[in-house]
Design goal:
heterodimer, A: 313 residues, mainly beta, Immunoglobulin-like, 2 domains, 5-stranded antiparallel β-sheet, 4-stranded mixed β-sheet, 3 helices, globular, disordered C terminus, B: 214 residues, alpha+beta, Glutaredoxin, 7-stranded mixed β-sheet, two-stranded antiparallel sheet, 9 strands
Chain lengths: 313, 214
């Protein structure tokens, strides 16, 4: 989070300086219609420089009552999949999945997003990226959009053209900033803040394997009265089972009923912990990765829910 | 005096009350489970017949949860894979029930005549298509998705519960290379071997039950 806050200040300065030069460039592709919504490919920066890492974003805007899915969709559904076509010298990372919400319908519980969501994908430019002409980024996205009444598949071919800047980028000459670039930057910043962050190193986490449940104990030095766990892997816990929380003076224990489809023992429990009963406060969401049956050792997660934290400058 | 009698009787009553409660709330408690007897049901088929699962003891039975609009189901039917499986296995004496648990107004709901038209149009060949708009059979099996598949052995025991195959996508191109768990379970069981993959996550669209609320 800190890294992002710092870099966004830096970007703002840079934006001001570069704006005039970029007026002709298109860092904003049109929103493409998908079933029951639109999808747009946007970038965190109006340009990219050799050696620089910026973020791309798949911006979903969905009609009311429709949702798409998290990396673990839960009991049904399918997460969006993206295939990149990038010029030489550019590498796209994995999707950084924001904290999902639960969609409950009877005994079926899914994990996903409604209304609007930005799926961030880091884009790394090689140091020797040619600077002569703007780059074109293409993304083919396959997705499933569902309501409680039906599911519809969708496809979108998205593209984005970004100018290339030669480093150094601190050529501040004027203060003209494109409104759209500022909006994009704010959207990326807000989304970054809703990504699960690694669990702090001083937390003590452990998972006890009882016959029908995993009991996740979290000791973080304060009382927690509300928490929801989102499992990263499918078929480890029963998604629809109530997650029973017992508060302790320094944390809590969360009982997660094992999935009936969990036929072999698992070594680790990975997922996202949200300290809220509903989805009003996603800022308190943490990626955890805890070995089962051992205590103390586990801390933050190395899973790809939020790899950006580690790679920020 | 009365009080102590009550105190004597009450502890004895508690197990009875619990037992009564357990039998009175069947759907969740008797849900299908691999290795356990398949819950019996009676359903109306689109061909007008009444089907009772128990009547098919002695045969393998496949249950296929269906929703004709669901992209995961369409992958199987547009590719012809589901029809192929139905023909292949019913030709070997397997009983195949396609079950529609979508509520009226929701994706996948069909009247008897609509379903009969669909079966003809898609050249589908299940033993019967069961209409379950109340979701009673769906809840009995805790069917979560379309297509959610179950395989029941001749002894009436569930030997497979889960996905149709190992490719949880809506992409038609994924059908040819997929490992079909239903066929594997039938083959292994018919060969007298244990079913190696008896339970998987049943991918697909959520079953569009009547009681689905937001």
């Amino acid at each position: 989070m800190r890294g992002r806050a710092l870099s966004s200040g830096f970007h703002r300065t840079f934006l001001g300086g570069a704006a005039l030069l970029l007026c002709a460039a298109t860092a904003q592709a049109q929103a493409t219609p998908i079933p029951h919504g639109t999808l747009q490919l946007i970038a965190s920066n109006p340009s990219i420089a050799p050696g620089q890492k910026i973020d791309l974003g798949l911006r979903f805007q969905l009609d009311k009552g429709w949702h798409i899915y998290w990396v673990n969709p839960g009991d049904s559904g399918e997460p969006p999949r993206v295939e990149w076509q990038l010029p030489a010298g550019l590498t796209a990372g994995a999707i950084e999945w924001p904290t999902p919400r639960r969609f409950e319908s009877g005994t079926i519980v899914d994990y996903g997003y409604e209304d609007a969501v930005l799926l961030i994908v880091p884009l790394q430019a090689a140091a020797n990226l040619p600077t002569q002409q703007p780059i074109r980024i293409d993304a083919n996205v396959k997705l499933l959009v569902c309501s409680h009444e039906m599911c519809v598949p969708g496809k979108a071919e998205l593209s984005l053209t970004l100018p290339i800047k030669s480093p150094p980028m601190l050529n501040v000459h004027n203060n003209v900033v494109r409104k759209q670039d500022v909006e994009n930057e704010h959207l990326f910043t807000a989304t970054s803040q809703s990504l699960p962050r690694p669990a702090p190193p001083d937390w003590r986490l452990n998972v006890a394997d009882t016959s029908d449940s995993f009991v996740l104990s979290v000791n973080l030095g304060r009382e927690v009265t509300q928490a929801i766990f989102f499992p990263l892997a499918e078929s480890q816990i029963e998604n629809a089972a109530p997650q029973k929380l017992q508060s302790t003076a320094t944390g809590f224990r969360l009982t997660l009923r094992k999935s009936e489809r969990l036929l072999k023992p698992i070594a680790r429990l990975q997922g996202v912990l949200v300290f809220a009963a509903d989805h009003s406060d996603l800022s308190q969401s943490y990626a955890i990765d805890v070995p089962i049956g051992k205590s103390g050792g586990a801390r933050s997660s190395s899973i790809k829910i939020h790899p950006a934290e580690a790679s920020q400058p | 005096m009365k009080r102590s009698t009550l105190q004597l009787i009450l502890p004895g009553l508690v197990p009875c009350i619990i037992a009564l409660l357990l039998t009175a709330a069947p759907p969740l408690l008797s849900a299908a489970k691999v290795g356990a007897p398949a819950p019996d049901f009676t359903g109306s088929a689109s061909n007008g017949k009444t089907i009772r699962l128990a009547d098919y003891r002695g045969k393998y039975v496949v249950l296929e949860w269906h929703n004709n609009g669901c992209p995961f189901v369409r992958k199987q039917y547009d590719s012809g894979n589901m029809q192929r499986l139905q023909k292949q296995w019913t030709a070997q004496g397997v009983v195949w029930f396609t079950i529609l648990s979508s509520a009226p107004g929701k994706q996948g709901y069909a009247t008897a005549s609509e379903e009969n038209d669909y079966l003809v149009k898609r050249q589908a060949a299940p033993t019967a298509a069961l209409l379950d708009p109340t979701g009673e059979i769906g809840h009995l099996y805790d069917a979560k998705t379309s297509p959610h598949m179950f395989v029941i052995n001749p002894q009436g025991v569930v030997i497979y519960d889960g996905a149709i195959d190992d490719k949880p996508t809506t992409d038609l191109n994924d059908v040819p290379g997929a490992t079909n768990y239903v066929s594997l379970a039938l083959q292994e069981s018919m060969a007298g071997k244990p079913v190696e993959t008896p339970a998987t996550r049943p991918y697909g669209c959520s079953v569009k039950y009547a009681d689905a609320t937001h």
